[in-house]
Amino acid sequence: MNNINLEDIFIKCIEYSKKIRNIDLRDCCQKILRDYKEKLIKKPATTGAHHYFEGGLLYHIYCVTRNAITIMELYPKLNVDSDLVIFGALLHDIGKTKNYTDWSDKSEYEHNGSQLLGHSYEGTHLVENYLSEYKLDEDFKNQVLHMIGSHMNEFSDCGTLVLPKMLEVIIINFADKIDATLEPAHNVINQAKTGEKYKICNAPRDYYKSLNTEYQDL
What we know:
By secondary structure, this protein is mainly alpha-helical. It is about 50% helix and about 0% strand.
């Protein structure tokens, strides 16, 4: 993904963080992003499934935040807390800065905590340490941490700590799944012939390319 300017993407993430109205959350979010900037721009988002390139982690975080904000704009009557959504989207995968080695053709898990604890735990622990510097109501702080610890929406090797119990974290989960599913598809689908089956990474099934005669003109 050589056409991605990671410095510009980082600036856009900071701009998104400025939408957070709660002063403490905004300051905390920006502090974490700046402290972990160098790691974010060096690591892939996964060890091969999606955004497997240098800076893939930062770019994925940007895309998930963009998606989450768009979802809120599409459903304004939901009246969800945009602060929680934006904070959680920007930091949902921050635990991966501790999980993965810097990107290379053989990027892998950095230590066994990645598999024994998972990035949801790593991220929640990291964010909690930063939040301890602010005088937040304890129950509200737990809601903030819920955005990080439950964004995966499923129990798995790298999944959630507890199933989602707030609509805000479900929005983050949907935004995350959209980006993680569609990002690795573009190269595969562009190489597939009309009507041909293709497989996206570790997807559970094959997909078919459209047979529509007008498809190539879209």
